Structure formats: C-alpha cells, structure tokens
Amino acid sequence: MPNIKIFSGSSHRELSHKIADRLGMELGKVVTKKFSNQETCVEIGESVRGEDVYIVQSGCGEINDNLMELLIMINACKIASASRVTAVIPCFPYARQDKKDKVGSRAPISAKLVANMLSVSGADHIITMDLHASQIQGFFDIPVDNLYAEPAVLKWIKENITEWKTCTIVSPDAGGAKRVTSIADRLNVDFALIHKERKRANEVDRMVLVGDVTDRVAILVDDMADTCGTICHAADKLISAGATKVYAILTHGIFSGPAISRINNACFEAVVVTNTIPQEEKMKTCPKIQVIDISMILAEAIRRTHNGESVSYLFSHVPL
C-alpha cells in the first residue's frame, strides 16, 4: 500500500509484526531508547513526510513508559510532516478511571487526561479495541474507532466448545450485562449475571447469581481481567450453582499480581484472552490460558482507514 507507514512501540512488537505481515508490509524503522536518567528517546529512522502513519502501542507492561513513548512517537511523526498520524492502541491505558465514584469525589478522570494528551501530542485518529466504557470515545474530539473482539469470540466459542448451543453466557458483574446479552443473542442461548458488592478496589465481597446455569456449560465474558479475583470468585459461584464446566473469555488479559496462581487454582476449563496484551510468558506458567489472535481485525481496520472505506463491517465479521 503506497503512502502508509506502520511503526511499533516497544510494548507489543509481536502484534505489530503480525499486523504488518497481514498487510504485506515491513514495520518502519524506529529506535526507542532510554537515557541514563530514564527519559525516553525516540528516533524515527525513515522519512514520513506526507505519509499516512500508524503507530501500534498497547497499554500494558510498563504502562506509563509505554504511554509516554507513544506520545513522543506521535509528536515525532507529526513534526516530521506526516499527513495523518493514527494511534493504534489495542488496550487503552487508564480506561477504568473514567468517572468519579460516588464515594471519593476527588478521584481523577485519568482516561480523559490520556485522551487530551493523545490529542495534544498530534494524533489525528485513534483505533482501539473493547474500551472499558464506550463513552471514552466521547473524551476525544478526534475520530475514535472502537473495534470489538466479539466476532472473534463467537468464532472461538463455536469452534472450541462442543456444547455451545446449550451453554449460558455469564457476566461477572452488572456492568458487562450489555456485552454478554449481545453475545447470547448472537448465539441464541441464555444469559446470566453475577451481582457483586465491592468493599475496596480489586477486592470483591459478596456475589449473587441471577439466572440459571444448572447442568450447563457456563461461559464468563468480560472486557478485562486484572488480578482475576472477580472471575475466580464467579467461577466458584457458578460451579456451586450447578454448572458442569466454566470457561472465561476476556478481551484484555492483564493478569497482574496474584492472577496466574488464582487461575491455576480455579476451576476453569480454559481462560481465553485476545493478544491485545502479550501473553507468551504467562502461558508458560499457566496452561489454562489460550489466545485468540485479533491482529487481522486491527490490520483490516488500518487497511480500511487508509483506503477511506467503512470499518463497521468489522463490528460483526472476522476478516478472513
């Protein structure tokens, strides 16, 4: 494709390579390094004048360093006369800090701050996946394409779970009900949800199951799992409510802190995540983790954006 350059930040090079391979391109030359005082330095190694530039950087690992690196890369391309700079952010950082709580009214809305930083650095367009709250799109004054892992998830369920026609799709909290009902409708199966009461962040107190999972396969679906306290509690709840097997399908597998040991000790058949965040190291210590590749969805979104085509086809189809 002419007049297009794809650069990779250091957060998830493997995904960037898959996207470039899918588009039949090489990744652009870029050197990212740190000075001894830990300042980030980025050098774009080829001309971007008049080009349509895509920078792939996910919100994972050293989140703050990676976010800063992305901002510097966007700015470097912008002041080197790139015609348009698109940030491809498979997992949007700080997406959970998207509103003030009822309790602590002095909480920051960091997702809005990140949106402002991206805009000020010079981004013209954002491509991301399964935002924690879709309203984050409204934090930007530039176009945001929020892609969905749902078509890839439906494909995985049909190919890998033999009893999918009689399963129940379960949301581990009330916030994910919309996501779960959408998948349940597309599969034409029942759904259930678990109501949880939190005392403190990252700690779950009491859980109540709403719906029936007796003698059925239960599939927990959520947009992200961090310390995995919620989904592991939910899995125990489902087994005690009579589910025969429990799967978990998550778009962003952050898996920080005690997550891996919790998954290993929990009663999951499999914990399925997409590769918006690198999972190779975690898969070595946790055999239950399986990965759905979503690089073709991002690659197709880049191709369609570059060619000025509609992206909405990807909301309901997996590109072949």
UniProtKB/TrEMBL annotation:
PROSITE patterns: PRPP_SYNTHASE. Keywords: ATP-binding, Kinase, Magnesium, Metal-binding, Nucleotide biosynthesis, Nucleotide-binding, Transferase. Residues 4-122 form the Ribose-phosphate pyrophosphokinase N-terminal domain. GO terms for molecular function: ATP binding; kinase activity; magnesium ion binding; ribose phosphate diphosphokinase activity. Its cofactor is Mg(2+). Pathway: Metabolic intermediate biosynthesis; 5-phospho-alpha-D-ribose 1-diphosphate biosynthesis; 5-phospho-alpha-D-ribose 1-diphosphate from D-ribose 5-phosphate (route I): step 1/1. SUPFAM superfamilies: PRTase-like. InterPro entries: PRib_PP_synth_CS, Pribosyltran_N, PRTase-like, PRTase_dom, Rib-P_diPkinase, Rib-P_diPkinase_bac. Its EC number is 2.7.6.1. Transmembrane segments: none annotated. Homodimer. The active form is probably a hexamer composed of 3 homodimers. Belongs to the ribose-phosphate pyrophosphokinase family. Catalyzes the synthesis of phosphoribosylpyrophosphate (PRPP) that is essential for nucleotide synthesis. This is Ribose-phosphate pyrophosphokinase 1. It comes from Salvelinus namaycush. The gene is LOC120062397.
